[in-house]
Amino acid sequence: MTGVALAEELLLLAYDDTTGKATMPRISLDLGMAAAVLIELALAGRLAYSDGALTVINPTPTGEPVTDEVLGRIAADTPHTPASWVQRLRHGLRDKILGDLCRQGVVRDVDETELGFIHVHRYPVVDASVEADTRQRLTDALTGSVAPDERTAALATLVVVLRMESALGMSGDAAADARRRLEEIATGAGFSGEVSIDDSVVRPSVGLVVAALGRAVDQALGPRR
What we know:
single chain; mainly alpha; two-stranded antiparallel sheet; globular
């Protein structure tokens, strides 16, 4: 696997570049991190859905530390459903991904103290080019100027399931239009809607993770209006 991981792209979209703070509910962001890593592994041909569970079909490392740590954990554990893995992986995953982004020089860790003893971490952007590329790909997909590739479609799917239209700088009618287009991209890629396990190996695996993420977000935040 090369390039920027899906979870990293999602995290950069979810954090304010200047303040370095999350702009969305932490619980849904943590759920999104877990789903993004699972989707990454499915797209890379490492995971597949079989007999009601996500199964490692290729243990070869991807080269991305956090992703490979999750791959090893799934390989060593008993089989679990997509919904179970989304919940199992969400704890602590965001901090690991932020740590990787810090080591890559994309963001920096600003450790501040509030009330004299509470440590608060912010992650303002240092290298804006990574997020700029992510945003450009999503913009091209939304406008239809460029057909989204599989990874961009997966990212678009995560954005809409996590209700992150505002992270794209949109509100009101523009956000509603973006949501419809993102949903179209997700459905067109086979990552949402009806999931057929006879269709392929990748799409059902991703689709079932997306469905599990959607249910978890609805449970955490309430049904989307």
